[in-house]
Amino acid sequence: MSLRLDDLHAQIKVLQGAVSPVTDSVVSTIVDATADFQASVINDINTLKAELEPKRLELKEVLENHIADYRLQLEPIIKEYFEKHTTEMEALKIRLEPIVEQMRAKVATNVEETKAVLMPMVESVRSKLTERLDSLRQIVSPYVDEYKEQLKKAYGQAQSISPEDIQALKDKVTPMAEDIKVQLTSIFEAVSALFNKS
């Protein structure tokens, strides 16, 4: 299959080499044929820029005059609004100061009242959670102990395996692995042959 891919790649390279002079010639011809048109377009753009520059400056001046006129009309209104707004905010601040002080004093009292009502609820929830956790611990404890024992046992067994036993297992498994490798290679070749026929 890899040989077929190499052949296909080689054929594409040969075709590309044969077509390259033709495509280069076509591109060169198109560039030459459109050179006058391209120069004409660039010339038109440069002429248009030169013609529009004074008009652009005139437009800029007109816009600046309009903005200055708008600013002149709006500035007194905005200034008056700002001063009035600032005065109103100061008056509101003066009116709110005693109320804010009263609220600040009440917050400490309110926190204590809230805490007094909330603490029995929190204590009840904490007590129930502790009870449930203890119950869960009692249910799970035998399983955890058994799991610990199995881990200790497995660790002990792993420690008792000698290097000779490991080598013997390796010697026994290696020929089997080689046999599997040979069979997989045969299967792959059969599948590959089927696809190469197509």
UniProtKB/TrEMBL annotation:
Matching SUPFAM superfamilies: Apolipoprotein A-I (SSF58113)
Gene Ontology terms, MF aspect: cholesterol transfer activity; phosphatidylcholine-sterol O-acyltransferase activator activity; phospholipid binding
Gene Ontology CC terms, in alphabetical order: chylomicron; extracellular vesicle; high-density lipoprotein particle; low-density lipoprotein particle; very-low-density lipoprotein particle
Keywords: Cholesterol metabolism, HDL, Lipid metabolism, Lipid transport, Lipoprotein, Repeat, Secreted, Signal, Steroid metabolism, Sterol metabolism, Transport
Predominant subcellular localization, coarse grouping: secreted
Keyword Nuclease attributed: no
GO biological process terms, semicolon-separated: acylglycerol homeostasis; cholesterol efflux; cholesterol metabolic process; lipoprotein metabolic process; phospholipid efflux
Localisation per UniProt entry: Secreted
InterPro entries, per the entry: ApoA_E (IPR000074), Apolipoprotein_A1/A4/E (IPR050163)
Family named by the database record: Belongs to the apolipoprotein A1/A4/E family.
Function: Participates in the reverse transport of cholesterol from tissues to the liver for excretion by promoting cholesterol efflux from tissues and by acting as a cofactor for the lecithin cholesterol acyltransferase (LCAT).
Name of the molecule in the record: Apolipoprotein AI isoform 2
